[in-house]
Specification:
Blueprint: E1 8-9, E2 34-35, E3 44-51, E4 54-64, E5 68-71, H1 73-76, E6 84-88, E7 98-100, E8 102-107, E9 122-126, E10 151-156, E11 172-177, H2 181-188, E12 200-203, E13 213-222, E14 236-240, E15 254-255, E16 265-270, E17 286-293, H3 295-302, E18 313-317, E19 331-334, E20 337-344, E21 358-362, H4 367-371
Parallel strand pairs: 15-20
Antiparallel strand pairs: 1-14, 2-11, 3-4, 3-6, 4-5, 5-9, 6-7, 8-9, 10-11, 12-13, 13-14, 16-17, 16-19, 17-18, 18-21, 19-20, 20-21
């Protein structure tokens, strides 16, 4: 193995509640909200998908114009007018008064799987004109972006807490404030979209806020095939400005060249959330044992839920533990070698990952790509 002047492996996000419906890129939620009142958001629609268990709520949208719905492109990507339906006219998600067939779906031409949620716009044209009532109305589009600090109203049928597995029946409402783009990036950004000058690596110790050493970054190298929609090719190498100085508490790890067999014991460490229902991060580095799950078994669980475990992914599980937000990019280790990079997990980070195994970027699959970038 080459001496590491600086190697840090990272990924996009655990997200995330950041992977579509079932992964960490899952659709959003109205956390801390209250039930909306009649007529409070008459433009709100439920965009439903026809899945394994029949029709179910997938995304929200807004009625506008004579017969249109504005929504996000990632909500309609891969669907047709026959696999989506629009319902509106009430607060109870299961008893909305009006269903309006879809005529056409327009995704923004600059939206694509590589856009990382940029240009995330779509317009759905309905067959029938929208009939206004006390519970149904259209909303005008803003022509200028509101200033930071402006009060804003959010409505939706998304999960009301991170650990919840069910959606609320009643439409939820929450008052928010607009956040300036630079502040938003500082709070929620990942390596993707950042320059080397904007990132710092800290290490040497167990306490997240008391790590002894740090280094600036000279280069960020994200895999050219990285796909934020499928969370495939989730590899990145950061080259540090300074050489790593080894000690009793600092060392480097060798990359595995062959994927470990099924049921191999593995070690997961990180400072990620210890519960899907909290936003707090632990001070001390956390550890849990895991067991490797074969890709075949992992796909039997995930493919019916709409997520494919590709050849660039490896799975691991524990009946009482899981990776979560903040563990992204961290190490999964077998026999003292790096076998996986924390990539994505079921929404809400359930403790029992035997039911929903956690996915990691498979180091052995991209050993050559990784090793040729290690300095």
């Amino acid at each position: 193995m080459k001496t590491i002047a600086a190697l840090v492996l990272v990924l996009g996000l655990v997200g995330v509640d950041s992977a579509k419906l079932t992964t960490t890129l899952a659709n959003g939620r109205v956390v801390g909200g209250v039930p909306a009142t009649a007529g409070q958001a008459p433009w709100q629609v439920s965009i439903q998908v026809n899945g394994w268990f029949g029709w179910s709520h997938n995304c929200g949208g807004s009625l506008t114009g004579k017969r249109s719905v504005v929504t996000a492109a990632h909500c309609v990507e891969g669907y047709t007018k026959d696999t989506l339906k629009i319902q509106y006219g009430g607060l109870d998600r299961t008893a909305l008064a009006t269903e309006n067939p879809i005529d056409t779906i327009f995704e923004h031409e600059q939206w694509n799987k590589e856009s990382k949620f940029d240009y995330d716009y779509a317009v759905i044209t309905l067959v029938n004109d929208i009939q206004s009532t006390s519970n149904v109305g259209t909303i005008e589009l803003a022509q200028t972006t509101p200033a930071a600090g402006t009060a804003a109203d959010l409505t939706g049928w998304g999960r009301t807490q991170g650990g919840a597995s069910t959606l609320p029946t009643d439409l939820q409402y929450q008052r928010l404030s607009i956040v300036a783009a630079p502040d938003c990036n500082a709070r929620y950004g990942t390596v993707e979209g950042y320059s080397a000058a904007q990132l710092t690596i800290k290490y040497d110790g167990l306490g997240r806020t008391s790590l002894k050493q740090s280094s600036t970054i000279s280069k960020v190298d994200i895999h050219a095939n990285w796909n934020s929609q499928t969370i495939d090719w989730d590899y990145c190498v950061l080259t540090l400005t300074n050489n790593i100085v080894k000690s009793s508490t600092v060392s480097t790890i060798e990359l595995v060249q062959t994927a470990p067999p099924n049921n191999s014991p593995a070690d997961l460490t990180g400072w990620g959330k210890t519960s899907g229902s909290t936003n707090n991060l632990p001070e001390n580095l956390q550890y849990t044992p895991m067991n490797i799950v074969s890709r075949e078994e992992c796909n039997k669980i995930w493919q019916p839920a709409g997520q494919t475990v590709t050849d660039r992914m490896i799975c691991a599980a524990n009946a009482k533990a899981s990776g979560c937000n903040g563990d992204s990019g961290g190490p999964l280790v077998v026999g003292g070698k790096l076998v996986g990079i924390v990539s994505w997990v079921y929404r809400g980070c359930p403790a029992n990952t035997v039911q929903w195994p956690t996915a990691y970027a498979d180091v052995a699959n991209q050993y050559t790509w990784l090793s040729t970038r290690i300095q």
